[in-house]
Amino acid sequence: MNTNEAKEYLARREIPQLFESLLNGLMCSKPEDPVEYLENCLQKVKELGGCDKVKWDSFVSQEKKTLPPLNGGQSRRSFLRNVMPENSNFPYRRYDRLPPIHQFSIESDTDLSETAELIEEYEVFDPTRPRPKIILVLGGPGSGKGTQSLKIAECYGFQYISVGELLRKKIHSTSSSRKWSLIAKIITTGELAPQETTITEIKQKLMQMPEEVGIVIDGFPRDVAQALSFEDQICTPDLVVFLACTNQRLKERLLKRAEQQGRPDDNLKATQRRLMNFKQNAAPLVKYFQEKGLIMTFDADRDEDEVFYDISMAKLVEKYGFTHLSTGKLLRNELSSESERSKLIRNIMERGELVPSGIILELLKEAMVANLRNTKGFLIDGYPQEVKQGEEFGRRIGDPRLVICMDCSVDTMTNRLLQRSGGSPRADDRTAITKRLETYYRASIPMVAYYEMKTQLHKINAEGTPEEVFLQLCTAIDSIF
């Protein structure tokens, strides 16, 4: 059996996933008799119905559902040494941690002279200086990680690292290296690059950025094992952004990118493999970061500016300690609750009528009361939409401290709405947009005048990029806090 056949067999039988789960169980349970423990785990695999039913935490007991802390106390290196002691006969004991099973054939190749590089110990960040903020941007291939990472970096003055681009440049510059030739083949077939090699490249890149206030890293980690390795060898991230996208949209974008850029890893076979790897690894990875309270998830099926708008709102919430309330989201949540009020709202919407402002105010008030003790303020998006709603909001809840009006031309709004609908040139689409904008102006002009007299109103020039608009929003909020 050659190397490719062996790898195909391991992947088809879900062996790497099984090994990862067994190792996680050993790390968390620390059994006195590891052999007996593993025998019990393998019996459980049979009861579950096979390797494909095993998840990353299948053998983590309910009492120890989260992995031990990675910072402070006993380090993961010493923890793993307790699991695999130095006098063990395990053939790969030179590793402080085990790489995923599909990486053994590369990292254990004695003809590759770079093993020392993989386990080199050094501090990535200068301990005498404040550590830069680290934002990880995750998502499937084609979810827009690169685009959103660049927008976030530009908006906050951070540096940007694309892990995929980092590896591609290394492959191109070291094409004569046997190791990197093998890695190039792995990436071209849609597999993940070796974990320790990738971590080493990220470390070296980070060490070239000693004075940055923040760094956005696109495309790493891809699974829980990589997340553990990143935290152990580099740091715990300050924020993880996950771009959720349907498989169909990912395929469409990858095919389009293949036509435009001609990347070698965007071939059909590699694309299918990458999507399969992402599907297997995404859920446990998201769950892992959710348990640590680090992740924010965004719907990435939409236009890139819409996605970044949501990210900007989330960052405003984080920056100022606000709670973001969207009337559209509150309505959707209520409709999914199967309450008596949800039935009333559904009947109204099915008749094609607008939901009464009284119901919307009830939802807003309930959400505000629920979050009152855990917030410094509320950022309410898209409400009120007319003077009558503003007056009712003031009577039942209170007048806002700040009102922000996003101001841009009719042409700009029309073009953005057309782009959102796929750039449709149809005359009836333009007519519908024109009527919608007329309705908006009839309501908004008197509403702006109303709030100019009652409270602080800031007009934001929304003609610019999302990054420029975000900075104006921060300036407006800073003016009253």
Distance between the termini: 68 Å
Q: Characterize the biggest β-sheet.
A: 5 strands, parallel
Number of strands: 9
Mean pLDDT: 79
The CATH class assignment of the largest domain is: Alpha Beta
Largest sheet strand order: 2-3-1-4-5
CATH second-level architecture of the largest domain: 3-Layer(aba) Sandwich
Estimate what percentage of residues fall within beta strands: 5-15%
**How many helices?**
21
Structural class: alpha/beta
Task: Name the CATH superfamily classification of the largest domain.
Answer: P-loop containing nucleotide triphosphate hydrolases
Helix content: 55-70%
CATH overall fold name of the largest domain: Rossmann fold
- As for the number of domains, it is 3
Contiguous uncertain segments of 5+ residues: 62-120
Please describe what this structure looks like:
The protein has 481 residues and is α/β, with parallel strands linked by helices. The chain has three domains: 1-98, no CATH class; 131-301, P-loop containing nucleotide triphosphate hydrolases (Rossmann fold, 3-Layer(aba) Sandwich), CATH 3.40.50.300; 399-481, Rossmann fold. It is 55% helix and 10% strand. It contains 21 helices and nine strands. The strands form three sheets. Strands 2-3-1-4-5 form a five-stranded parallel β-sheet, sandwiched between helices. It is globular, with a radius of gyration of 26 Å. The model is unreliable at 62-120 (pLDDT under 50).
